[in-house]
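Priority: medium. Attachment 1 of 2:
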């Protein structure tokens, strides 16, 4: 999963490159959950992959 999400930072903006079939999963993963609402393993994996890709891009751009 983490190999399919790439984030780059250009002109102070994050650019996300991921397969179209994963866009809905990312949208669901980033949506706030109710307190106590369980998180599925796939949603957690997508959210974590996005977080890692964004962190790497920010480090490369010198923004961390």
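Attachment 2 of 2:
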């Amino acid at each position: 999963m983490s190999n399919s999400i790439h984030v780059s930072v250009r002109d102070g903006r994050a650019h996300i490159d991921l397969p179209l079939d994963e866009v809905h999963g990312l949208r669901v993963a980033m949506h706030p959950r109710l307190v106590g609402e369980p998180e599925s393993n796939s949603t957690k994996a997508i959210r974590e992959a996005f977080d890692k890709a964004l962190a790497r891009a920010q480090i490369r751009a010198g923004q961390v």
